[in-house]
Structures are given as structure tokens and as C-alpha cells.
Specification:
The structure is a single chain. By secondary structure, the chain is mainly β. The chain has one domain: Beta Barrel (Elongation Factor Tu (Ef-tu), domain 3). The chain is built from 2 helices and 9 strands. Strands 1, 2, 3, 4, 5, 6, 7, 8 and 9 form a 9-stranded antiparallel beta sheet that branches. About 10% of the residues have low confidence.
């Protein structure tokens, strides 16, 4: 049946069905020096006091929080993707559309868009309040690229 189709046409049809390839590009990183708890009791939020150690932390991009282990490795504790509501069994993105992003980025009580290497800032996270001292903050963007299938893998 497939002998009637040209291999290039088959390849084109397969490539149309492939999901795009995600490439994560790191933009900046920082270390949590101190955690501040602000606001009234019911609306209390944790704000991380961060020093930028590499690149730029930009509030327009996504963020993830990594926690160093005793063996020198780091575990992702927040990236906006792996957190689920336990009662409703739905991803938190349906409740917090900005999940995985900064809820606030401040320098000396002034809202800012980006913080450069060597500077300190206050960071709040949308949908996450479990940040701890010595956590690593990584700012990144996701580039989507069209995925191509090798012709010899199809035939």
C-alpha cells in the first residue's frame, strides 16, 4: 500500500504530525540569600532576596527554582509544570495562567523588568511560596523548533 507513495511525501506528512522540539535557553541565574514573609496573615507571601550570579533575571521569561542536594546535584522544586492540585487533579496553569513566571521583581521597593549580574532584588513567584535560603533561581525561555524526521527512519 505504501509503495504508491513517494518517500518525500510520506516524510512531509510525518513531519506535519510531529510536535515541535523544545529548546531551553538559560538567560540568568541567582541565589536566594534570605526569605522574607510579607503581608497580613491570610494573604502572607514569601519573597526571596536574591543576588544575580549569572546573566540577567527578566520578569518576562519563565523561572524555575532548584534546591541543592547534599551530593552536589540540584533538584527542581518549582518550574510551573510539575505542580498539580491534589483535590481537583488539574494542572495549576488552569487556575494560575502566569504559573512558572515571576509574580513580582523589585529592586529597592521599585518594580523592575530585569536585574543584571551582581545586583540584588526581591522575587515573588506565581503559585509557589516554598522558596528557601540557598535555593537557585534560573530564568529561561523556551524556543520551539520544527522537528524533522530523517528519511531513512521512515522507509
Amino acid at each position: 500500500m505504501l509503495s504508491n507513495f513517494h518517500p518525500a511525501a510520506v516524510k512531509e506528512k510525518v513531519e506535519e504530525k510531529l510536535p515541535p522540539e523544545e529548546e531551553i535557553v538559560g538567560i540568568g541565574a541567582g541565589t536566594v540569600l534570605r526569605v522574607f514573609s510579607i503581608g497580613p496573615n491570610k494573604a502572607r507571601a514569601n519573597i526571596a532576596g536574591v543576588v544575580v550570579t549569572r546573566g540577567v533575571i527578566d520578569r518576562r521569561h519563565k523561572v524555575r527554582v532548584l534546591r541543592p542536594n547534599s551530593d552536589g546535584e540540584s533538584t527542581v522544586v518549582f518550574d510551573g509544570k510539575n505542580i498539580r492540585m491534589t483535590v481537583l487533579k488539574r494542572p495549576l496553569q488552569s487556575f494560575f495562567p502566569r504559573l512558572g513566571l515571576f509574580s513580582s521583581l523589585k529592586k529597592f521597593k521599585k518594580d523592575v523588568t530585569e536585574i543584571k549580574k551582581g545586583e540584588e532584588c526581591g522575587v515573588g513567584f506565581a503559585g509557589f511560596g516554598g522558596v528557601q535560603e540557598k535555593d537557585l533561581i534560573e530564568c529561561y525561555r523556551v524556543n520551539l523548533r520544527k522537528r524533522y524526521q530523517a528519511l531513512d527512519q521512515i522507509t
